Structure formats: structure tokens, C-alpha cells
Batch of 2 targets.
Target 1
Amino acid sequence: MRRILADALVRHALSRIGLYLFAGLMLVFFALPLLWLVLTPFSRTPAYQITAPSFTLHNFRVLFDNPFALRSIGNSLVLAGGTAVLAVVFAGTAAYALSRVRLPGRDALLYAILLLSSIVTGTAAMVPIFLMLFQLNMIDNRLALILVLTGGLLPSAMFILKDFMDSVPKSYEESARVFGASPLQILRHVVAPVVRPGLATIAVWAVVQVWGNFLLPYILLHDQAKQPAAVIMYTFYDEGGQPNFALISTFSLLYSVPVVVAYLIVNRRYGFRFQGGIKG
């Protein structure tokens, strides 16, 4: 009996050790890139390796001397913010209409739009999009790029927001209608506050999708002064493909700051409890 108990204790201890070892390896795996991101910009000899930095701001001075680096982060903010606003407005109104208006085959239509958007990706549609914008003389136009990015996100955004719209009791709207509220006032003052977590979800999701998008801005924006950070970072490699670690490490740190700030703000406001609808 004692031997069986001892074997069970040994197996339990070994399993716990294995679990902690696995957790430690995962922690190291994910922490190393973050350590490189935080430490390398302050190193006098930035490289692939992570070393204790001999503190210097020289890399930041090199980055600030680049005429397109900081401007590209501003361009990314414009593209991400503009796309998020349009995606929230268009997807919100479309999802509200799909939720309230009874149309034959409505759900099938929504699923078909979502399926087609998954099959016909932005990469597959790149040639016709480029030709269309070229004929409209809208190449190098940031508004055109925002519209293209918004169009690519709308099917999924509508699909997500429709569930939030369905959770809003119609009695709320009927009460507002009794007091003479117009449909636009009902949508703005009654429905929007209730589905605000869903709208925040779409806004954050749109920002993340646009923030790291490389292909569409690279093809549709030729002027370096208008290109976002994801494209400008590509220029930090020389003709032989060797990275300029001073620029890349420092730029990566600054490039991450807006996303981290957005995460902290949204997490503080919603705590990532994005379930919508009515409590109680």
C-alpha cells in the first residue's frame, strides 16, 4: 500500500515538474521577443542577440533623422482610425437594418456575404481593385485606401454586430417611438449605447487589422510620405536584405506604443468583457 502511495506521489510530482517546465519554456518563448523589443533600442550595438544595453539614445536620433519614420506612424493612425470609424458606422447601421427588417433569405444572404468575403480575399481581388482605382485616378489616395480596407472588413463586422443588435429588446425602441423619437435618434440614443461593447469590439478589431496591413498600402500608396509604418519598415533593409537594427529596433518600439495604449484604454473601459446585450 505504501509503495502504491509513494508511486502516486512520484507521478504527481513529476507531472507538476513537467507542467512547470513547459510553462517556463512558453514564458521564455514569448518573453524573449518582448525583451528584445524593449532593450535593443537602447543598445550601442543593436543586433539579433539580447544583451544588457549600455544605455544610449543614439538609435532614436538616427530614427528621428529619417524623414518618413515618424510621419508613417501618423499615416498608420489616420488609416486605422478612419477605417475603424467607417467600419463601425457602416457595419452598425447595416447590422441594425438586418436585425430589424424581415427579408426573405436574410440569414442566408448574411452567411453568403461572409462566405464570399472569406473566399475572395483582398489578395485575390488586388488586381481589379488596383485597376478600378487607377481608372478613377485614386492611386496614392489615402481616402481610397480607407474605403478599400473598410469594404474588406464590413462582412465580418456586420456578422458580429448583428448578434449584438438582436439582443436589444424591441420594447426599448417602441418606448422611444412613443415619445416621438425618429429612427436615427433611436439608433443613436437607444440602440448604440446598449451595443457599445460590440461597437468597441469592431473598432479595436479594425484597428488591429489595418495597423499591420502591408500589401494593400504597399500597392495602392506609392508616395513614401503617405505610406504607413508597416510599409516604411520595409525600407529599413539595405539592397542586400540586411536589416538596419538601429532603425528597426527603435521604430518597432515606437510602432508598438499606440497599440499598447489602445489596449490599456479599452481594457480599462471594458475589461475585454465584450459580451453585449442587456443585463438582468
Note: The CA atoms of residues 74 and 228 lie 8 Å apart.
Target 2
Amino acid sequence: MSQEFELSYGEIDYTVLGSLRRPSSGYWLLVGALVLGVVAGAICWAYQIAVGIGAGGQNIPVAWGTYLINFVFWVGIAHSGTLISAILHLFRAGWRNPIARAAETMTVFAVSIAGLFPFIHLGRVWLVYYMLPYPNQRNLWPNFQSPLVFDMVAISTYLTVSSLFWYTGLLPDLAVVRDRAEGLRRKIFTVLSLGWTGKHEQWRHYTRGYLFFAALATPLVVSVHSVVSWDFALSVVPGWHSTIFAPYFVAGAIHSGLAMVLTLMIPLRKVFNFERIVTVDVLENVAKTIIFTGLIVGYAYGVEYFLAWYSSNIVEQEAFRWRAMGAYSLEFWIMVVCNSLVPLLFFIKRIRRSIAWLFGISLLVNVGMWYERFVIIIGGVAHGFIPHAWGLYRPSLIEYGIMLGSFSLFFLLFVLFVKHFPSISMTEMKETIQEEAAHAG
């Protein structure tokens, strides 16, 4: 008998709604610290706008720095939320229910943060409308064969569908909060719940709509990061021009997103006493999935070296030799160890059921995935075809400040959400109890 089956409807409501009680002083201290991080990032961005894009460490030949690294990183984080909420929903995997809401929220916030970086990288952000695909008298009609235009369409579509999917799932729970709230809070949740009363007809439309969005979001999981990978694969830069980039990027994105789910859920279950809902069994299933994605990522690393050797192309061979033994070899080995070797510890049952190990390994995988983007993006353009054009890149303090601001903004949005909205889907948890009871009967 599972722990979920032992839960009652009343306990689920009491536990989840209990997380919405008046925040403590510690909560506001955390919010204040994150706001300071966001302000620091905004000041750095304002400084860059005032003095120009040269405030960053970009140079010739490395014109793409941390802004593109962070863009790809956050798009990757956004992937796993849809994997957990949509794909696992279609497969009726009940263990995803306790973590689906947090994963969907992570998706919406992460893809929003990712969308900021093309603006930051532009420098003159007020000219962003040049990127929009519309005809004009200046003959600036975009090149529809460019993956950068694909990016804009794919990511805006992904953000729209993910947001609708997330909000649709929230509706019944918003109505539960409304029915127990008073004063201004009740008025706010009355608006947000869109008149939900729980009638049979509403439930019928809800279940169909949720299933429809799950089916619509599933191909987007594959398409969005495939499109991001084409930003690199469609070029002729050594180390980038590869046909395996799309599956390689998708697997890596899911790998990093699953690790971020653990990073967010483990403190959340402790602070809000969700241990009986987000059980160790649920976290263990996430860990098992990380083993699978880690093996795919490790296989992709190996295949890249095999293809370079098999091609007999001396430029490709030199590019991959330099990755492992050149100026960025430390970043390369951090990437390999954190993404491919450390997750193998989850083969040991004692480790994958240990909260401390789960949290520590999730942090290491996130670090490794950030460095994977660093190695691919910086390593490719820093060591191209012509030796006299080789160069190195290190981020400037302004770039570090903007990166701090982006991470602070992501965690600030998440912290605000989990304290003011149901961070676990009460509706889906109750469905889990029903299904468990049906199987038991």
C-alpha cells in the first residue's frame, strides 16, 4: 500500500492550504535577498545599455558569451516541466502528480527568463522590433531560413501553450482557495478562478481541455530545444556542425530540468511539511529518470568524439582535442563528471533514496549542464578554422551581475508563487487516491 493511498482528501487540503498561511519573517528575508539580486542584475543591465555591449566580455572571435549560455540553459530547464506535466500525464504515470504543479511553474518562469537574454544580448534593446517577422519599407524582412527566426516562433509558442496548460490545471485549486478565503483575497481568487463551481459540465470540459493541452505541449518539448540546437548545427563552426545536436540538446534539457525539479522540491517539501505527499518514492522515480537521461548525454559526448575521429577532418579532430586538453579543459571535465558520471551514483538504491544525496547531486547536474553550454558555445567559436583568429573569453563582472539577476528573478518568482498559490495540485492528488483505491479494490 502506498503512502499516497493512506492520505485522505481532508489531509491533502489541509496540508496544501496550510502552505498559504501568513508568511514568517524568514520568508520575507529570503524575498528581500532575492529582490536585491534582481536589482543588482537590473543595474548591471542598465550600465551595459548606457556604455554599450562592450561592457560584457564578448570579443572577436567569441561574440556569444554568457547571454547565449544562459538562454540555452534556461530553455533547457523549462523542458522538463512539460515532460513531467504533459508527457507523464498522457502515460498516466501517477508519481508525477505531487511534483507536476511545481514543474509546470518552473517551466513558465524559466522560459520567461530565457526570453530576456536575446533582449540583453541585443545591446540596443529598443530595436528589438527588427526581429519581428513583418514586412516594412526598409527591406528588413527576416530570413525565414534562419534558425534565429525559428527560435522566436518556437519559444513564444512554447511559452503560450505552457502558460495555458499551467493555468488550466490551476483552476479547480484556485476555486478551493477562493471558497476558504475572506476579504480582498477572496475577491482576487474569485477573479482568478473564472467562475469555477465544480459542476459536472465544467469538469468534463476541464478534463478534455487539460488532455488537449498535454497532447499539444508534448511535440513542443521536442521541437523547441531542437530549434535551439539548430542555432549551432546549421552553422559550419567546428564542433557545432553535427546532425546529433537536436536529440543531444533535448536529452540534455530534460536532464537539467529533472535536476532542477529535485533542487526546488526537496526544500519545498521540508519547509511546507509535504513529506507525506512528495514522498521519497516520488523523488526516487525522478532520480531513476535522471540516470536514463544522464546515460543519453554521456553517449552523446562519446558519439561526438567518434564522429570527429571517423570523419578524418583534422579541423573537427583538433576542435575536440582542444575541448578536452585546451584552455577550457577544466570546464569540459566538470561537464563530463557532473552530467555523466555523478548521476550514475543513483544506481545505488541507498543514495537515490537519501534526501541529502538527491539534493547534492541535483545541484552538481545543474552546474554541469551550465558548463555544457559554456563548452559548446565558447569552445566552438574560440577555436575555429583559422589559427590566427583563435581567441579566449571570460565573462566580465557585468555579465556575472546579469546572471545573478536572472537566477534571483527565477527563484523570486517561484518563492512568491509557492507562498500565494497551491504549489501541489490538490485535484490530481485526489485523483491519485481514487486510482490507487480502484486498483486496491
Note: The two ends are 12 Å apart (CA to CA).
